[in-house]
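Following up on my earlier message about adenosine monophosphate. Here are the inputs again, as you asked, copied directly from the submission form:
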Amino acid sequence: MISLYKTILPGSVIGIIGGGQLGRMMAIAAKEMGYRIAVLDPATDSPCGQVADVEIKAHYHDMEAIRKLASVSDVITYEFENIDHEALVWLQENTYLPQGSELLRITQDREIEKREIVRLGVPVAPYQIVKTEMELEEAVVQIGLPCVVKTCLGGYDGKGQVVVRNYRDIEKAYDLLLSDKCIVEGFVSFEKELSVIVSRSPRGDVSFLPLAENIHVENILHQTIVPARVDETVTEKAILRAKQIAEGLNLVGTLAVEMFLVNGDIYVNELAPRPHNSGHYSIEACESSQFEQHIRAICNLPLGGTRLLTPVVMVNVLGEHVGITLDNIELLKSGKLHLYGKKEAKRKRKMGHITFIGESVENIIETINALPIWNEYKMEVQS
Ligand code: AMP
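Thanks, got it. Here's what our run produced:
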């Protein structure tokens, strides 16, 4: 097994599993530093493929393609968590995968992830794991209404989730059990959703992005506001929770910790072992972006500073927002537009984001609200 950490210098090739927008933004940061990029993705001309030096088109579980990626890369990283177990084991034994496979194993399964968070002494919403309809019904009674049922494997952006508000809703969650075990979680009446993105290198450098306040609409991130509009004590607590988890799980690479703020307390909702949508603001607004920090971390370079340089609000551009955004491009003076190069603008698909900077988050939000984009969300975001 290859386990010794090495320093990967610019000029080397970074292999990325997954060719989506996170891979693309990692690749752009890496290329600025002088690295070359190879990417494995089932599609050609993927967002990352468009900026990579080498594109390998194959499924993530295609072992021949994984071997090919390994043969052209000096270090391997990934942009999403659902990598096939066999591929992961092979990668860990035969390539340089400084992030290892343990964090992926934990975050691929909500049951294991919750157990680990609890083991580290970090509060989470009450939960139970269920495998049958009867267990589901019993868990709903025990946890109480309302609650949220989520598949343990493979869900994202609210996919594989059902909110159970009354006993009749339980039936809607039966289908989730067809795929695998589920988690039933108490519904948290949070004041805010927050996230901290932490990076750690093998040499032990750790950095945290400034605390982000996140607004979701229909379970998909809509806006990230930084600085988060919370007391200093909440900020400290949130960073401390992220630190506890990153240290407890021996993080190498980047970890996003998603949290709920409830009566001044922090509950951790979910972990993502990679750069995260709620850290995109850091490209323009921080000394070093989450993508640069991630590349520095996996290459064992010293991590950069993450000081916030300006108040900032990041807004996602979903499929239904692309047309109106481009029609109003003249109005995006203080907005930095990022489009990911995806061809098909499907509804709810993340096509890009815009980062708005300004004197205060209040001013920025006013500017955003005056734009004719995201009109259907404005009522929900007011609250
Ligand atoms: P997740 O896939 O777990 O990140 O959930 C997506 C979004 O659903 C979260 O960002 C929250 O807005 C909402 N959500 C998830 N779990 C809960 C919960 N237990 N209580 C309240 N809202 C939740």
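One observation from looking it over: The pocket of adenosine monophosphate is lined by residues 125, 148, 155, 158, 185, 187-188, 193, 216, 219, 258, 269-270 (CB under 6 Å). Hope that helps, and feel free to reply on this thread.
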